[in-house]
């Protein structure tokens, strides 16, 4: 196998693994710019939280808005305000709503007819 072939195989394996999981992101904060142990520069940490969007996400969550839904929860919550066509399309389906079902729901909710 060539190096390019190994890279392609490894990339495909990684993409498959990521698509099968619910990735979580970890934000690392630098406590100080000098890399000194036991030293925390409050202003520097707050800047990282602010510019990384963490403080805004906390503000939105505290306002009562959910930060993320899985597809089934999103579909369950918002399908009641659809015009009913999606409910008919899903009738009899036993599986959980998919991403495509949620996209269809969003399309219907934003349509102006």
Describe this structure in words.
The chain is mainly alpha-helical. It contains 6 helices and no strands. α4 (71-78) runs parallel beside α6 (99-110). The longest helix has 18 residues, at 3-20.
Q: Kindly estimate the percentage of residues that lie in beta strands according to DSSP.
A: under 5%
Cα-based radius of gyration, to the nearest Å: 22 Å
Count of discrete alpha- or pi-helical segments spanning 4 or more residues: 6
* Topology, number of strands: 0
Low-confidence stretches: none
Which class of secondary structure composition applies to the elements? mainly alpha
H/E element order: HHHHHH
Give the N-to-C terminal Cα separation. Answer: 55 Å
Q: Roughly what is the average pLDDT, rounded to an integer?
A: 79
Please describe the topology of this protein.
Blueprint: H1 3-20, H2 42-51, H3 54-62, H4 71-78, H5 85-90, H6 99-110
Helix pairs in contact: 4-6
Summarize the structure.
With 113 residues, this protein is mostly helical.
Using brief descriptors, characterize the structure shown:
single chain, 113 residues, 6 helices
């Amino acid at each position: 196998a060539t190096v390019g072939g190994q890279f392609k195989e490894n990339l495909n394996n990684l993409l498959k693994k990521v698509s099968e999981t619910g990735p979580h992101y970890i934000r690392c904060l630098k406590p100080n710019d000098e890399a000194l142990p036991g030293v925390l520069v409050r202003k520097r940490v707050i800047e990282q939280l602010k510019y990384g969007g963490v403080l805004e996400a906390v503000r939105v969550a505290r306002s009562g808005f959910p930060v993320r839904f899985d597809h089934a929860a999103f579909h369950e919550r918002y399908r009641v305000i659809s015009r009913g066509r999606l409910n008919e399309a899903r009738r009899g389906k036993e599986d959980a709503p998919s991403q495509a079902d949620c996209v269809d729901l969003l399309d219907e909710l934003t349509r102006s007819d």
